[in-house]
Amino acid sequence: MTEEYDERADDVRVLLETAHVPPAHADLARAIAAGGAVRRRRRYAAVAAATVCALAGTAAVGQALDRTPGGERLEVPIGETVTGTPAPFSACTVRPLPPPAGKGVLTGQVVADPTGRYAAASLVQPDGTVRPVLWTDGEPALLPAAGDGAQPRAVNSAGVVVGTSSTAGGTPLAWVYRDGRVTKLAPVDGYEWWVPLAVDERGDVTGEAWRGLRFVVVTWPRAGSPVLLTRPGDVRGSGVGGDGTVVGTRGEGADPYVWHADGSGRALRLPPGAATGQALAVRGDWAAGWVGLHPEASAPPARPVAPRAQVTESDKRVLDMLGKAAGGKLVTAPARWNLRTGQVTHWPERATPATAVNASGWVALPGDGGPTVVSPGGEVTALPGPADGYPTTLSDDNRRLYGERVPRSTDADSAAKQRLMNGGPATELLMWHC
Amino acid sequence: MRADDTSEYVEFVSARLARWHRAAYLLCGDEHRADDLVQTTVTKLYVHWARARGADNLDGYVHRMLVRAYIDEKRLAWSKVWLMSATPERGASGDTGVEERDLVVRALAELPKGQRTVLVMRFLCDMPVESVAAAMRCSTGNVKAQTARGLATLRARLGEAPLAGVGTGKGGGLAE
């Protein structure tokens, strides 16, 4: 009798496949961070067990150690993988992100979710107003108006977008696009300006607010008023990870800094010869950004201190502070931090900051002859497309990057003007598919 | 874990998250608990990835972890310890028109836990009777009996609504 029932269960299969299910909020970076911690605990336990067992000389020693092969030594690739999977980034293509048909020209910086499925930027409409745009797998859709000069700041893997704009009266407006509607995020009382920097998989928004040169990290829970996560101070956030970890800088000299959802924070290590730095992006155990080196500590000739990534309205002030602190004599180099071990890696031969990092520690390095990606072990792979391609996002599965073309040198403005005159976009946004 | 392994893990998991979430949600009928179940499962999978990746049937292995996480209250309690900091506020879903869309979800929720589990595992996750029995730590006869009863009850509950109409709803979230 049961077999008879089973055979006829196709209707139930269809029901289960099509039943309405709310969006998922599981977060891979969180899984890797938490899972990594469990594995480390187990390894210590295994080592301890092995020590005890070694006295008895049992075979358990080998077993205990066998369970924990390789450890976390990402810097040293061990052996060959005998899988048929091609190396990451070995077959990338690049194409421009299209604007919504006939609606205006693209502008602003592109942001993307950790899966790389969603990307968002802005569109200047023929009447001069600016609207946010959301791409799903490269297909654009115009979002509802969200104040003056709307600029998306982040998008999560459910397609929820957060961004900034201003009201008609010139006051700050932080907004969230969810379920087809744009809603305003509550103002941060007592602050001049506030910017959402991230929206996590649960829909909680994290950002920063400031008053003069005093910054606070602030979170807007899915339901409720904004909550200040840090005391007003000289720390400021640039990037937020899925687990609520915020990275940025601290102090006038701009020291790279990380702080956690519980409010605790610490300085990130600087490599020898570096005086300053800033972490711009964070994902799981990894942060990416730049460090400022004294020219004598880096071989190539002096370059300007000009980090250009994840810029917020207040970046200028920080750059001013930087210039003062360093006497304008520092050169920048991209850097990556392992938040768990504290290890910092930097590339003194390059000048442009590391702009993006994913959950497994790959980073995107634009500039200096063309955009590249660097594996956790240090292998460098060039990305195809224009040499001034400037990726600012890198998906967790190493399949998608989004960015823009950033012409270097002083003719950047004239090039943009020329594109506008020819009816082209003010900004050329790019999508790499690997 | 080696970088290659982590990339492999991320690739494997990203492609399946939506499906696991669907299974978890249909099992427990609660948005946040479904997230917890999936989060617990992917975290454990990461811990055991070196071993798991060699499994003959990795999908089946993960499905088993998911069911166990659901069935085993102790395990769930353990997961709460580190998920607690990330537990979102409940309620305030603000969803309208839920009535029609989650007819199936409600009908499933009204089934006894065992029947619901076997239906989801067998017909959404495509697990064979033997694997479901192993995951649920019961006999294959028990799984078959629960399948038969579950199907009968589900069909009776949905009897009034034409089945074809139910499937044409908006579909769920990320998967589509």
Write the layout of secondary structure elements.
The complex is a heterodimer of chains A (434) and B (176).
Chain A: H1 2-7, H2 10-18, H3 28-56, H4 60-66, E1 93-96, E2 105-112, E3 118-124, E4 130-136, E5 139-142, E6 148-155, E7 161-166, E8 172-178, E9 181-184, E10 193-199, E11 205-211, E12 214-220, E13 227-228, E14 235-240, E15 246-250, E16 255-259, E17 265-267, E18 274-283, E19 286-293, H5 315-326, E20 331-338, E21 344-346, E22 356-357, E23 363-365, E24 372-374, E25 380-382, E26 389-394, E27 400-405, H6 412-421, E28 429-433
Helix pairs in contact in A: 3-4
Chain B: H1 3-28, H2 31-47, H3 49-52, H4 58-71, H5 73-83, H6 98-101, H7 103-109, H8 113-124, H9 129-136, H10 140-157, H11 163-166
Helix pairs in contact in B: 1-2, 1-4, 2-4, 4-9, 8-10, 9-10
Termini separation of chain B: 32 Å
Q: How many individual β-strands of chain A?
A: 28
Instruction: List the domain count of chain B as a whole number.
Output: 2
Q: On the 0-100 scale, what is the average pLDDT of chain B?
A: 73
Shape of chain B: globular
Helical/strand content category of chain B: mainly alpha
Oligomeric state of this protein: heterodimer
What kind of sheet is the major sheet of chain A? 4 strands, antiparallel
Q: Tell me the strand order in the biggest sheet of chain A.
A: 1-28-27-26
- Strand % of chain B is under 5%
The share of residues in helices of chain A is 10-25%
Average pLDDT rating of chain A: 77
- How far is it from the N-terminal to the C-terminal residue of chain A, by CA? 51 Å
Query: How much helicity do the residues of chain B have?
Result: over 70%
Protein name (chain B): SigE family RNA polymerase sigma factor
Keywords (chain B): DNA-binding, Sigma factor, Transcription, Transcription regulation
Family (chain B): Belongs to the sigma-70 factor family. ECF subfamily.
Domain RNA polymerase sigma-70 region (chain B): 17-78
